[in-house]
Amino acid sequence: MSSSQAQADYASPDFSSGCAAGETGGAKGGAMLLHGVGRFLTGFAIALIAFPAFAQTEAPTAKEDSVGSRARPDYDPLGIESRDLLTSMGLAADPFTGSFLIFPKADVGFVYDDNIYRIETDERSDKILRFSPGVRIQSDWDNHLLTLRAGANIGRYQDNGSEDYEDFNFGGSGVVDLTERTSVGGGISFAKSHTDRASPDDSGQGIPLTDTFQTTYRLNAAFKGERFSFRTDGEWTVLDFDDAGPINNDDQDRDEYRFSFRVGYEFLRGTTLFVQPSYKLVEYDQSLDDGGRQRSSDGYRLLSGLEWDISGVTFLKIGAGFLEQKFDDVLFGTVSGPAFTVDFVWNATDLMTFTLELDRTVEETTLVNASGILNTKWSFAVDYDPLENLIFTLGGSMKNEDYEGVTREEDTLRFHFIVKYLIHPEWVTEFRYQYEDRDSNEIGESYKDNRWLAQFTFRL
To answer: Which residue numbers in the chain have pLDDT < 50?
Structure first.
């Protein structure tokens, strides 16, 4: 596996359909994005010329060979070769423009939701038609990686048209293999979404959805030697929240900067000890929010632990340490406490994969008098494919949100069951059920919700 392939997941922007506002924002970065994309692609092309290629071949890791991620040659989309597409349009394809694969797709989903406002009483149900077109353009090179993505997520409610939404996203990312052990990468993405009705920062029933915009810039570098390895990641995110009817959301606009560095030592084959410090800086556009508080902050998380991945059957990453986030407002207390992370993948048989994840972070909120949210979440899933083209998934999660500075605390339980049927490379059907139950000590903030989805995907 080349270094570029190893970093593809990080370098590629996140384009999951229907993302919530906590993961999106930043319209004012649009012009910067267009300029940045041009500079990035130009620099990337120069890098490809300047550095040679280094081929590597490795057996699939446990994650790569899991039921949910493994290659399925008889059912994976083939893509359209850019050379063939250009030729069919009567255009000449040079070695660069003809070396890409194009993967278009379109999802059409039908959703039934029995509590669209995520409220405790007087729930309202509705049927939603969801349409999600998208395209991914990826280089077909032995080394290095260049990916461009664009997509949209459009929702139409049968009875509650005020909840309709049109979200979209686009971006690019790339990785250059400097040597067979060293690589650098980066990416730019832009997305428009909306605040989820379950968010504490949502304006509430009867108020229009809050449109949000996010522009994200990423850079990373990695080195893997015989024993020692390191990786560094930097990310700058610009978040911009539109007003929702009479509600002013400008006090949520902010820039978030994240930097992390990981050093690992492989003392046994496939077994690595690591130390991973990270730093987070949050700068709000307004020095004071609508409640008169200074919400800008900075903090760190320090983890050390062990990563084990040797057989292609089991992957385990476990780390523990400490986190802290300090706020500019003297009336806000410091959020601090133990930090931990667990990432476990077990391919129990050729047909079944178990996964378990656990993480703790500090999240932003503009809830009155609350400085931040200490978020502790664990999740599990069991994937089973009795046939190569039939996949069953049973999973769930539990999230504890402790609002610092106020007494509010919430536990959110989720379960989901998914059946995915790969008809052939061009057609996929999916049926999904999800149950969500939030238990809050704040009056009126608990709720239960059931959602059913039938989705049909066309892809090339």
So the answer is: 1-57
C-alpha closest to that of 204 among 3, 381, 447, 411:
447
| Domain coordinates in residue numbering, the chain | 3-459
Predicted confidence (pLDDT) per residue in 22-58, tens digit: 333 343 434 333 344 444 444 444 444 444 444 444 6
CB contact burial 204-217 (16+ within 10 A = b; e otherwise): eeeeebbbbbbbbb
| Tens-digit pLDDT profile for residues 333-380 | 899 999 999 999 999 999 999 999 999 999 999 888 899 999 999 999
- The 3-class secondary structure across the chain, one letter per residue, is CCHHHHHHHHHCCCCCCCCEHHHCCCHHHHHHHHHHHHHHHHHHHHHHHHCCCCCCCCCCCCCCCCCCCCCCCCCCCCCEEHHHHHHHCCCCCCCCCCCEEEEEEEEEEEEEECCCCCCCCCCCCEEEEEEEEEEEEEECCCCCEEEEEEEEEEEEECCCHHHCEEEEEEEEEEEEECCCCEEEEEEEEEEEEECCCCCCCCCCCCCCCCEEEEEEEEEEEEEECCCEEEEEEEEEEEEEECCECCECCHHHCEEEEEEEEEEEEEEECCEEEEEEEEEEEEEECCCCCCCCCCCCEEEEEEEEEEEEECCCCEEEEEEEEEEEEEECCCCCCCEEEEEEEEEEEEEEECCEEEEEEEEEEEECCCCCCCCCEEEEEEEEEEEEEEECCEEEEEEEEEEEEEECCCCCEEEEEEEEEEEEEEEECCEEEEEEEEEEEEEECCCCCCEEEEEEEEEEEEEC
Token output for 229: 């390895």
Residue range 3-459, CATH number: 2.40.160
Q: What pLDDT, in 10s, does the model give residues 308-325?
A: 997 889 999 999 999 999
Global pTM?
A: 0.84
